[in-house]
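Lab notes, practical 5.
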Amino acid sequence: MGLLDRYRGMKVLVTGHTGFKGSWMSKVLTLSGAEVIGYALAPPTEPSLFKLSEVDNKLSSITGDIRDLKRLQDCFATYQPEIVIHMAAQPLVRESYKNPVDTYAVNVMGTVNLLEAVRGCDSVKSVVNVTTDKVYRNKEWGWGYRENDELNGFDPYSNSKSCSELVTSSYINSFFSFRQQSCAISTCRAGNVIGGGDFAIDRIIPDCVRAVSANREIIVRNPASTRPYQHVLEPIFAYLQLAISQLENSKFAGSYNIGPDDEDCVSTGELVDMFCGIWGESASWNCIPEENAPHEAHYLKLDCSMFKSAIGWKPKWHIEDALKKTVEWSKAYQNGENISEVMNRQILAYAEG
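Output from the prediction step:
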């Protein structure tokens, strides 16, 4: 039985379902035949992948703030989900420098509220809290971080996600270890994701798409920085595989890194070179360092061997595959194609690959 088949008829609550990753998650789950409940604010960008994906009429979409504990608890009480994927977040490093208080409120207290809602809902048997590869104290070393390395993200976004990890650990130890009704809870630390439909600012591939679509040169601030780039479907399928595995056997619950193989950890300059080659049409870029730029890590890489060993997962699409799928989506959008159908094709290609 394939992964998507295992979700048919399951009640799954996704927080942050109107965002970039949340929209892809919602699309995958509705394709699988799951009963999906989404809890989030309105889509964060215009245009919006959530609207383009046409999933809004295939799930129960609740407009709510993750900082509103009462509304979140009411949502759990009404829908009685079996699986929870927590993706609601303030996800941007640069935004966290501008609005640190809101970033901590959403990413830390949002996790507290989510786990409080789970604690009061006996139907929930599996929870995956999505954090980030940036939770680690970055020592700029040349090997991948392991799950037992020190948590202490530098900037407010990264640090708030480190705090989210600690909150989750505390709740597991304080409440769920002794809960009569068992609930398996994990955290997932995923690398940088790319894919069609990301309209956020200050992200390298969306910036590339905007520039080439307007016939402008791509501007890159820090071409030497190395990140674990992966297509958005990689971590989404990993979260789903973990959520269903720990539902069936709680021994799989834990904290896991999810990222690409070593050869797909590339510098931003290499990534943009590949993007330009795939896009064609005289796409080009230039490095213009930013004065007084906020701190950014130069080197970040994950060791994902624990997740591969425990769950039997491995990446399917290499970085060039991920870029080709992103360009395919972006050009389809430019040409006015049906984005819902484009997403369906890419999801099924990934699932069957």
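Observations recorded by the TA: The chain has one domain: 8-289+299-352. The chain is about 45% helix and 15% strand.
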